[in-house]
Design goal:
Number of strands: 0
Largest sheet: none
Structural class: mainly alpha
Number of domains: 1
Order of helices and strands: HH
Strand content: under 5%
Number of helices: 2
CATH topology: Helix Hairpins
């Protein structure tokens, strides 16, 4: 504020306490970091589980298919149907593991890089 001659008489200031907003913003940032960390851990866990379950599943499928081939026409009663059921169940489980892995990667932006000139057609 100034008088009629332009001399400074005083000043007005407004002060607002932003401690609550700052505290909330800090808490939100910590929570976001926690969520990102948990998502990364979940993705790693899903990848490990998918790999660890796919290998024995593949082994079971191969041996059941070998058993079906070697015992072709000699399986008694429902045994051939049971073998087909096991093979189908293994296929469905493999698809579930693949879908689980894809789900954990949902929303990620793929990394695109330029292709070196020597690889271009």
């Amino acid at each position: 504020m100034r008088d009629h001659a332009g001399r400074l008489l005083g000043a007005v200031a407004a002060v607002r306490d932003v401690t609550a907003q700052r505290t909330a913003a800090d808490a939100q940032a910590r929570l976001l970091a926690d969520v990102q960390r948990v998502n990364e851990e979940l993705q790693l866990f899903a990848h490990i589980v998918s790999h660890d379950l796919t290998e024995p599943l593949r082994t079971m499928t191969v041996y059941v298919e070998l058993l079906i081939q070697r015992a072709q026409g000699t399986l008694a009663g429902d045994a051939a149907g049971w073998m087909a059921f096991v093979t189908d169940a293994a296929r469905r489980m493999r698809q579930m593991l693949t879908d689980l892995l894809a789900y954990t990667r949902a929303g990620q932006t793929p990394e695109f890089r330029p292709v070196p000139h020597s690889f271009r057609t």
